[in-house]
Amino acid sequence: MTSVPHRTAKKLGLVIDLDICVGCHACAVACKEWNSGGHMAPLTDENPYGADPLGVWFNRVHTYEAGVGGNSRTVHFPRSCLHCEKPACVEVCPTGASYKRAEDGIVLVNEDLCIGCKLCSWACPYGAREYDYDSGTMKKCTLCVDRIYNENLEEAERVPACVSACPVSARHFGDLGDPNSDISELVREREGYDLMPEMGFKPVNKYLPPRPRRNKVGDTGAPAALDSAAPLSATHGAETSSNPLLRWVDRALSR
Amino acid sequence: MHPALSVIIFTSVTGAGYGLLGLMCALAAFGILPGNRLFGLAGFVLSFGAIATGLIASTFHLGHPGRAWRALSQWRSSWLSREAVLSILTFGPSLWLAKGWILDGADPAAAPWRWYGLATAALSLLTVISTAMIYASLKPVPRWRHPLVMPAYLLLGLATGGLWLNVLLHGFGLAIDDLAGAVTVALLLAWLVKIAYWYSIDRAPGRYTAEHATGLWSQGSVRQLEAPHVQDNYLLREMGYQIARRHAGRLRRLALLAGLGGPIVLTIAAALLPRWGAFALSVPAAGLAIAGVLVERWLFFAEAKHVVTLFYGAERA
Ligand code: SF4
Ligand code: SF4
């Protein structure tokens, strides 16, 4: 049914750590690999070795530069379905193909009901849904519903493919509806946030913000006295140094 | 947003079809239109023809047109489903009225036929409103979730439908001067709403930014360093469509010329001519108006920006 359950027993989801993601795209590739044979298979590729390939992926890793000058940083930003509590995609679906499971909150598409109207992909602000031109149906992240309950896998492997593939453990899986779960704890501790909360869709997945930048020399264990000698901030240039020698060094080095 | 021809034809042609059907049935119910059998036949054929053309065009947008009937099930939450249900419900009273009017030669202004006429008119309006709401309810496309979107759909549907009604009246030598005047006013009003909409979207820079979308505003400004993929994906094909401002301006003028200027001049000229001359001018008036709405609908898609583009380097949406 399109009608969204008021409450779900669990709120399974991911917590993505933007501080440590290294942008290797391993999660995206592992996702593609697993799901090519999974619940929503196939993830069709068109013209895969041609000049203009096109394919369905559930997970995309963006790379941004945030901030300016010495305070800027590179942020790798994996983007996949957030399994919203109030999923607009489910509400707009005219057929009931898109649904949210009452037991664990996973948002899925029933490929046998989908008419391929694409409205759900328009309704999602997060770009979580990709249309398969070949099957004529909409596809999306299943939170690896065919792994997390899969008794043929080792217990440790019963997590989404992206979570198990990430080499730096930037992705965490668990029940965000349980305030005592490890990942709820992590979200609290690191002040995890929602994407575009103003849309009102209440995403379950959370993002952990990059930790404050360690610009001070002392932050790296060097003597704090060296701080003014090594201005890391572009806004904190030679003019702000009172020592004429350091000013000269800075000018010479900035040439 | 990518302007898909099937959806453009769907919204504009069904809009005119329901406009014509609703106006004809309402005016007949009030006894303003003559209960002429042949006139009724022509009116129902034209309006049902337009509605069917539009609905069939819409199925070309679907990956599985054969399953389209499933879209009738989720009317509780989905405007697309409501649109589908209402468009079919409208056939109930309208087909019954058509039978009475054309086959039985009944007077559409007499009970019970007038009630079928009024029900048809109400359902036609609701269908056009729900078509508009499919778009106007989408939060990720701020230029669609705009208070003038629904009024523009409704007024353009009524005005283009009214122009076709005018064609029929001239063809049967039954022209009502007041009706031609009212249609002209409706057309003017519809395009004024559209001009106000364009004015408003040109002045609103877009509420959302990349900082919003990524939630990284706390880190300062956000710029895309590397996209996740070098070639297009579905999202960029569907939502990444962008039209140059210069082209948009040209197309807006074209839409106004075809949709407003031409039809008004021709409708007024038609009112001054004898029957067949008037008929000869009213046809291009109605045809031009549809062409204008097609251009307007194309722009409605092409000028709309989806917030997902913010993840891909768009500055505002
Ligand atoms: S594309 Fe399929 S899942 Fe999406 S709204 Fe349409 S019918 Fe529902
Ligand atoms: S696998 Fe982990 S580190 Fe690599 S892109 Fe994905 S989240 Fe980031």
What do you see in this structure?
The complex is a heterodimer of chains A (255) and B (317). The model of chain A is unreliable at 234-239 (pLDDT under 50). Chain A has helices at residues 26-35, 88-92, 119-123, 145-148, 161-165, 182-190, 244-254; strands at 12-17, 45-46, 54-55, 60-66, 73-79, 98-100, 107-109, 129-132, 137-140, 171-175, 206-208. Chain A has one domain: 2-Layer Sandwich (Alpha-Beta Plaits), CATH 3.30.70. With 255 residues, chain A is of the alpha+beta class. Helix content of chain A is 19%, strand content 18%. In chain A, strand 4 (60-66) and strand 5 (73-79) form a beta hairpin. With 317 residues, chain B is mainly alpha-helical. Chain B has one domain (5-312): Formate dehydrogenase/DMSO reductase fold, CATH 1.20.1630. Chain B has helices at 5-29, 37-59, 79-103, 113-136, 149-171, 177-203, 210-214, 234-239, 245-272, 275-302; one strand at 222-226. The interface between A and B is large, with 70 and 58 residues. Strand 4 of chain A pairs antiparallel with strand 1 of chain B, so a sheet runs across the interface. The complex binds iron/sulfur cluster (2 copies). One iron/sulfur cluster (SF4) binds at residues 21-27, 61, 76, 78, 165-166, 168, 170-171 of chain A.
